[in-house]
Each structure stands twice: as structure tokens, then as C-alpha cells.
Amino acid sequence: MPVQINPSILSADFANLAAEAEAVRGADWLHVDVMDNHFVPNLTLGVPVVESLARATDTPLDCHLMIEAPDRWAPQYVEAGAGSVTFHVEAAAAPVRLAREIRAKGARASMALKPATPVEPYEDLLPELDMLLVMTVEPGFGGQAFLDIMLPKIRRTRELINKHGLELWLQVDGGVSASTIEQCADAGADVFVAGSAVYGASDPAEAVRALRNQAEAATAKASWACGH
């Protein structure tokens, strides 16, 4: 499966989101962080902004819901135009039912794990998902330092995906940059969310290309990718 780079608009200029989306043309997805100031101690944007952004860009939207009651709200983000919707398993009441509802509405279903949440209890749920997100910082704020203690968890997750022969994307989010993306790719990630590393660059589109090149080179040498 090819490497994918998803710039996070959490680090973009919220007053010019259409222009900021255009600035990273060539990215695979735009990562949209939705926070409710309850599940995480921060408040960002919601359904109306996602609707507007979906109309303003051809790049598909990858909505990461850091909110309480995703069972209630996640389907609305599909209706708003998201092509992929990620809910946190720590907040979901019925994750399998929710994943199936997201898929039934036409989007990719993704489940996120906070740093302290192990992947192993959810092994049986993996076939219900299109992507699994391993957070490499505590969710809630951009610009945090990458937690390298998550690398073994990424490796274990990739082993579970390969064990079951799943075409499941493995996303990492938090502190992904030129200095960390190769470690993530070597551990098994293939979808990379990058905020300040992209939007903090003088040329965001070039930053996307450079990160992609780094991740592709690391993946080509990674033991997990051999034969896949």
C-alpha cells in the first residue's frame, strides 16, 4: 500500500482554509481535527466548517473526531462531506456498530487509540475498519513532541494487520516531521498526519513531497513491508 501524507489543518490559518487547502495540493487527504473541549481540553471546528471545506477543495477530508459521543455525531461528518471519519475507541459506546454505520454512509471508517490505549484488546475489531490511528502524542493540541515510546505499539499493530492479511491503513498523528517520519514508516505506519511540519514550512507543498519521499524510502527498507 502506498505511503500517504495528510496535512493537518490544525496548524493552518483558520481564516483562510480554502487557500491553505490549495497550498498542499498533492497531499492525499486533508486531516481535520474536530475537538469538543470535553474529550480533549481544546475546542476547534465542527460540521459547518467541514461542509464549507468540502465544497472548497477537491482533496478528500480525513476527519479525526476527538469528541464525546462519536456514536451520535460521526455520521453527520460523513454527511458533511468527509471521506474518512475517525472516532476514538475510548469515547465510542459501540465501535463496531459505529464503524459499520460510517461505512454504510459511504466513508472510510477509522478508529483511534490514545497513547495509553493498547491495540491488542481490539484485534477482533480490525476487520471492521479501513484505518487504525495510533496517536503519537496525547490528543488535544498541535505542535507536541513525538512520543517515541509509541514505536513498539506501531510495530505490534502492523504485526496484527499482517497476521490477519488485512488491507488496513495504519495512521500516525502527533509530532510527525522530517526527523520522525522514517521511524514511523520503519515501524509499520503508512499514513502520516503532519501539521506544523507542513504548514510551518515556507513551501507547504514541497514539505509534503519531501515527507513522502522520506517515508517511501524508509518503507522500501522496512522488514514489515517485505512481501506486501
From TrEMBL:
<keyword id="KW-0413">Isomerase</keyword>
<feature type="active site" description="Proton donor">
    <location>
        <position position="173"/>
    </location>
</feature>
<keyword id="KW-0479">Metal-binding</keyword>
<feature type="binding site">
    <location>
        <begin position="195"/>
        <end position="196"/>
    </location>
    <ligand>
        <name>substrate</name>
    </ligand>
</feature>
<feature type="binding site">
    <location>
        <begin position="140"/>
        <end position="143"/>
    </location>
    <ligand>
        <name>substrate</name>
    </ligand>
</feature>
<feature type="binding site">
    <location>
        <begin position="173"/>
        <end position="175"/>
    </location>
    <ligand>
        <name>substrate</name>
    </ligand>
</feature>
<dbReference type="InterPro" id="IPR000056">
    <property type="entry name" value="Ribul_P_3_epim-like"/>
</dbReference>
<feature type="binding site">
    <location>
        <position position="64"/>
    </location>
    <ligand>
        <name>a divalent metal cation</name>
    </ligand>
</feature>
<feature type="binding site">
    <location>
        <position position="64"/>
    </location>
    <ligand>
        <name>substrate</name>
    </ligand>
</feature>
<comment type="function">
    <text>Catalyzes the reversible epimerization of D-ribulose 5-phosphate to D-xylulose 5-phosphate.</text>
</comment>
<dbReference type="InterPro" id="IPR013785">
    <property type="entry name" value="Aldolase_TIM"/>
</dbReference>
<feature type="active site" description="Proton acceptor">
    <location>
        <position position="33"/>
    </location>
</feature>
<protein>
    <recommendedName>
        <fullName>Ribulose-phosphate 3-epimerase</fullName>
        <ecNumber>5.1.3.1</ecNumber>
    </recommendedName>
</protein>
<keyword id="KW-0119">Carbohydrate metabolism</keyword>
<dbReference type="InterPro" id="IPR011060">
    <property type="entry name" value="RibuloseP-bd_barrel"/>
</dbReference>
<feature type="binding site">
    <location>
        <position position="31"/>
    </location>
    <ligand>
        <name>a divalent metal cation</name>
    </ligand>
</feature>
<comment type="similarity">
    <text>Belongs to the ribulose-phosphate 3-epimerase family.</text>
</comment>
<dbReference type="InterPro" id="IPR026019">
    <property type="entry name" value="Ribul_P_3_epim"/>
</dbReference>
<comment type="pathway">
    <text>Carbohydrate degradation.</text>
</comment>
<feature type="binding site">
    <location>
        <position position="173"/>
    </location>
    <ligand>
        <name>a divalent metal cation</name>
    </ligand>
</feature>
<dbReference type="Pfam" id="PF00834">
    <property type="entry name" value="Ribul_P_3_epim"/>
</dbReference>
<feature type="binding site">
    <location>
        <position position="33"/>
    </location>
    <ligand>
        <name>a divalent metal cation</name>
    </ligand>
</feature>
<feature type="binding site">
    <location>
        <position position="8"/>
    </location>
    <ligand>
        <name>substrate</name>
    </ligand>
</feature>
